[in-house]
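User: Hi! I'm working on a homework problem where we have to compare a predicted structure to a textbook description. Could you give me the structure for the chain below?
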Amino acid sequence: MTISKSLQAPSSVVMVRPHHFAVNSETFDNAFQSATPSSADDATRAYRELTEAADILRSHGVDVLLFDGEDPRTPDCVFPNNWFSTHTGGHIAVYPMMAPNRRLERRADVLDMLKTNFRVQDVMDYSGLEHDGLYLEGTGAMVLDHVDRIAYAVESERTSQIALERFCTHFNYEPMAFRAADAQGRAVYHTNVLMCIATEFVLIGSSMIEQTARRDEVLQRLSQSGRSVIELTEDQISKFAGNAIELQGASGRILALSETALNALDADQKALISDSATLVSLSIPTIELSGGSVRCTIAGIHLTPRA
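Assistant: Happy to help. Predicted structure tokens:
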């Protein structure tokens, strides 16, 4: 059977197994993050959760390139999608991070592996923008439509308009920034908790986009792409239902999301997703204490493998 490939769904990913996981005291602007300090057992549980998640993805035919995060100074290393992204044509971007201890997550060995195993033309390093207080935390700050070349981005301290426009100019994306907040008025810290763009559908909590005109514009652009728009409630967003990622498996596309997120979806939403991709849930409740879920743990590889 021939499996059709999608620009939106990578078949290879980078994941980082944390050895010193903890709720990061430097990132409490994240309303999704637990206010309860980490227990001594959280690091062990998070290590096990990520290991099992990688095994499940591999069982579906996803090529998981697994690294170990052994630096005790990097409690959030399990979220590599924030510090780098990869792009068709052989391009890599390295991003400026707001929290000082998250900047330590950038790793030369990951970039060297990508250069060895995939065709890489260049690496665009934006990390120097940190010195000017300008941040753009990768595919957390942006949700990229790789087909229509649009970078959707919630405005926040972690998403500098200057850095966003610079990325979009270099990588040929159209920036579409907007403000989003919850019912308490707390700003959404990363775009990838609000929305997920797959090949044939979109998950989005559009009710959290503050400006009506901008909300309508975002929804119009998503609909024009030909995708089905699946609306998520604010409660579903709080349970990470938007923090999912479509991947290419051996037998077709899958939608990887957490067990928490899957349980938050209703039957009609699951049916719409299942028409296009197989739902694959990963149990990562400890990791979710840090305010990120499955999408945050996965850095997709949109590069051509070497022979």
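For your comparison, note the following. The chain has one domain: 12-301. The two ends are 23 Å apart (CA to CA). Good luck with the assignment!
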